[in-house]
Amino acid sequence: MPPSPEQSSDDLKTDRVLSSSAASAGSPLVSIPQVSIDAEYELLESIGRGGMGSLQKARDRSLNRLVVIKRIVNSQNSDPVAQQRFVREAEAHAALEHDNIVRIYRVGRDDNGLFLVLEFVSGEDLFQRIQRAGPLQPSEVLRIAVQICQALQYMHSHGWVHRDLKPANILIDTKGRIRVTDFGIVRPTAMAIQLTETGKTPGTKPYMAPELCNGSGSADERSDLWSLGATLYQLITGQVPPLSKHFDLSDIPELFQLPLSRLLAANPDERFQTAEQLLLWLQAEEHAGGSGPTAAPGKAGRTGWKVFSGRTGLLLSLVLLAGCLWFLNAVFSTDPQRVQDERESKAEFIRHTDELRSKLLQQ
To answer: How far apart are CA 248 and CA 233, in angstroms?
Structure first.
């Protein structure tokens, strides 16, 4: 049977490799400890479904804390590929410990199959937030963007790509803290084959980078950053990102026009190349705009910019100037060698601007 238009050669290779390995190695259930979930957890209520599993709120009887129990959906319980993807999710969670990433407490199995025990976050996801309250204020979007970017920077630095970043997979608790969740299709950046379902491209199309939708590229840090741009677009406008991948940013607040134009570039080489580069920009904007905890009341003008002087103003100017020069060079450089040189020099750029940022934030 010929592949579907949405299926990449990597997807086909993965299905064949995983089916073969599952047949030869047996079910991944064998290596997972079996427990009595009812004896250890009090099941409270169903709270929905993730990318490939059902979610239940529960109470850990021994520690008296609320948790979320995630299971493979019944239709996939006997599917070795689905089981391996579920184990991959557990591996991704176990490898990542960060304040802006949902924590995993346990992976286990019982008579009903595999399950994960995850941190319970009291709040809502960002999709629910938009549905309830409409588009968010620019200052709130900025705070949220910084936290998501910190999570991505941490994930990418540890060799993982999320591949399904979207408002429904980002939780915000009652104190405004962000947690990235749903690692059902996360994969290591160095892994050549992808754990996908036959005939399907991993991810959610409105939030998938163009190269993943058309099969011209593979998932990496830059495709996650495109998904972040699509997510921020929805937080700002209240609208689902267009499937055409063509965005009208004319009504976007000026604060976000430049970073969104970079994040949503069709060519991955024209985007921010790392989450760290984007984070530098966002933190400089957060500090300058008076939206962070260091803001001085009464110092912001109509545009939201805080007034700086002396060494602080100089350092801030240097940080923003360095970022603008790097941006202009990246956008207008079309020569392949110049593009390669620019990408090779990004580490030095990050080091220098990080030093300036650290000095600035100490003021």
So the answer is: 10
Q: Is the pLDDT confidence value at 124 over 90?
A: yes
Task: Tell me how far apart the alpha carbons of residues 160 and 219 are, in angstroms, rounded to a whole number.
Answer: 10
| Amino acid (one-letter) located at 123 | G
Nearest to 147 by CA among 177, 122, 113, 102: 177
Give me the residue label for tokens 């009464």.
Answer: 298
Residue type, 10: D
Catalytic residue from among 11, 79, 164, 182: 164
- pLDDT band, very low/low/confident/very high, at 113 (cuts 50, 70, 90): confident
Residues 6+ apart with CB under 8 A from 36: 110
CATH architecture of 20-119: 2-Layer Sandwich (3.30)
Nearest to 280 by CA among 309, 244, 322: 322
Q: Residues 254-267: pLDDT tens digits?
A: 999 999 999 999 99
Verify whether residue 164 is a known catalytic residue.
yes
Q: Is the pLDDT of residue 41 over 90?
A: yes
CATH 1.10.3720.10 fits 123-294, yes or no: no
Closest CA to 174 of 129, 239, 232, 117: 129
Q: Which residues pair with 187 in a beta bridge?
A: 161
* 3 state SS of 93: helix
- Nearest CA among 246, 182, 151, 186 for reference residue 48: 182
pTM: predicted TM-score of the whole model, two decimal places: 0.70
Contact between 196 and 190 (Cβ < 8 Å): no
pLDDT in tens, 313-328: 555 555 566 666 665 5
